[in-house]
Specification:
The protein is mainly beta. Helix content is about 5%, strand content about 50%. Strands 11, 13, 14, 16 and 17 form a 5-stranded antiparallel β-sheet that branches.
C-alpha cells in the first residue's frame, strides 16, 4: 500500500502550522492619557502599601514591526526629557523613571510608591523624538508637551493566590488542574520548568489591584521552591521547584494556598492514552473513541493514578503500531510530545505505549486497541 500522500500531507500540515504561528498580530494599546498623546498600561486601581510599575509609550507612528515568537506591534515615537510628578505624594509618589524598550518599541517605565487610599494625577512634561509634529498650541516655550493621567489607590483587603491556567483547553493533559488546592508536577529533573501562579491583591469588593514589591508568601518546606520572577502588571509569579515531594505555598496572614506534589517519572505507576481527530490544517479536534480510515489522528499518553490532577510536565513515551497495515505511527508532534497516527483501512488498530522511565525506572508498557471504521461520514 502506498502511504506517500499521507506523508506529504504531514509535511504540508507542519508548514501550515508554522505559517499560522508567524502571522499573529497585536493591535497594540490605545492612547488613554488626558490629552491623548500617551499610552499607559493601567486600567484599574493601585494597591496601597505597594509599589506600582507603569509602562508609558509615546504617540503611535502609524508603522509596525514584528518580533520573533511574539507577533507584530505598532511603532511609537520615543519620549525625551520626560518629567513626571504626582499631584499628591501622600497618595502616590514617583520613585523612578527609566527609559527602556518594550516589544521592540522605545518606552518609559515609571515606578510609583502607593502610600495610602485616594486619588492623584500623574502630570507629564516631555518632548517627542523622530520628527513628531504636534499642534503648536499644545507646545510650551521649550517645545515640550503636557499631559496627565488619573490614578486611584485602594486598600488591600485580601491576597488571592491561584494557578495561572489561561489558555488551557479540554484536550490538554493539564485540563483537570485546579486553580487552587492540590496539583501534581511531573519533572524529569528539578527546575525543568517554572510553575506559573497568579498573585492578586484585591479590595473589599474583589477588584484586583496593581502592586509590586516584597511578596508575602510562605513556602513549606522553606527550600522547596524559590521565586524566579514576578510580573506585577499581569499579577504573575514564576516559582522554581527545588525538591521532589509535597510542598505548600500560601500567602502570609491567610488566604488560598497551593499544594504541589512534585514527582519524578519513576513515580508514575500507570499510563493511559487518548486519541484526538486532526483537521486538514493539523489542528487538534475532539477526543475520539474510534478512528476513520484514511484520516490522521493524534495520540497523547498521560500518567494515571496521580495523587492530584496533573498541572505540569508530561511522561516521555514511545508509541508503535502492532498492525501497520491498518494504522501506523508517522512521527512525533514535538510541540506536544504526542504521536501522529494514520488510520489506513478498517479493522482493529493496535498501538503499544511504552514509558521507559516510569514504574520506578523499570518502564511501563500498555496496549491500546482502537477500532478503525469506514472513512466516509
Amino acid at each position: 500500500m502506498n502511504h506517500a500522500p499521507l506523508a506529504t500531507f504531514t509535511l504540508l500540515l507542519a508548514m501550515m502550522t508554522i505559517m499560522m504561528m508567524s502571522c499573529v498580530e497585536s493591535s497594540g494599546p490605545r492612547a488613554n492619557s488626558e490629552a491623548g498623546y500617551l499610552f499607559i498600561d493601567l486600567e484599574g486601581p493601585l494597591a496601597a502599601g505597594w509599589n506600582a510599575e507603569l509602562w508609558i509609550l509615546g504617540p503611535a507612528t502609524g508603522g509596525r514591526h514584528c518580533e520573533a515568537d511574539l507577533g507584530c506591534f505598532p511603532d511609537h515615537h520615543a519620549l525625551e526629557d520626560l518629567e513626571v510628578t504626582s499631584s499628591d505624594d501622600s497618595v502616590a509618589e514617583v520613585l523612578e523613571i527609566t527609559h527602556e524598550e518594550l516589544n521592540g518599541v522605545p518606552a518609559v517605565r515609571i515606578t510609583l510608591d502607593s502610600h495610602s487610599p485616594g486619588e492623584a494625577r500623574l502630570q507629564f512634561r516631555f518632548a517627542v523624538a523622530d520628527g513628531f509634529t504636534p499642534p503648536e498650541e499644545d507646545l510650551d516655550a521649550e517645545d515640550r508637551l503636557a499631559d496627565a493621567f488619573s490614578i486611584e489607590v485602594r486598600e488591600v483587603a485580601h491576597l488571592r493566590l491561584s494557578r495561572y491556567l489561561e489558555g488551557l483547553n479540554l484536550t490538554s493533559p493539564h485540563s483537570a488542574c485546579p486553580q487552587r488546592g492540590p496539583g501534581t508536577y511531573l519533572m524529569e529533573y528539578l527546575e525543568e520548568y517554572d510553575v506559573l501562579l497568579s498573585f492578586q491583591k484585591v479590595d473589599a469588593g474583589g477588584t484586583p489591584l496593581r502592586g509590586s514589591g516584597q511578596l508575602p508568601l510562605t513556602v513549606d518546606p522553606e527550600d522547596a521552591a524559590t521565586l524566579a520572577d514576578f510580573e506585577p502588571s499581569l499579577d504573575l509569579i514564576r516559582m522554581s521547584l527545588q525538591t521532589f515531594g509535597t510542598l505548600t505555598i500560601s500567602p502570609d496572614g491567610g488566604g488560598d494556598e497551593i499544594i504541589g506534589h512534585v514527582l519524578a517519572p519513576g513515580d508514575v505507576t500507570e499510563i493511559f492514552a487518548r486519541g484526538f481527530a486532526l483537521d486538514t490544517e493539523g489542528r487538534r479536534g475532539l477526543e475520539v473513541g474510534q478512528f476513520r480510515a484514511d484520516r490522521l489522528y493524534e495520540v497523547q499518553v498521560e500518567p494515571d493514578n496521580l495523587p492530584a490532577p496533573l498541572c505540569g510536565g508530561q511522561i516521555a513515551t514511545q508509541v508503535q503500531t502492532l498492525t501497520p497495515a491498518i494504522c501506523d505511527v508517522l512521527g512525533t508532534i514535538e510541540e506536544r510530545r504526542t504521536a501522529l497516527v494514520a488510520a489506513y483501512v478498517t479493522g482493529e488498530c493496535y498501538l503499544r505505549l511504552h514509558a521507559p522511565a516510569a514504574g520506578g525506572g523499570q518502564g511501563l508498557t500498555r496496549d491500546l486497541v482502537i477500532e478503525v471504521i469506514p472513512g466516509f461520514d
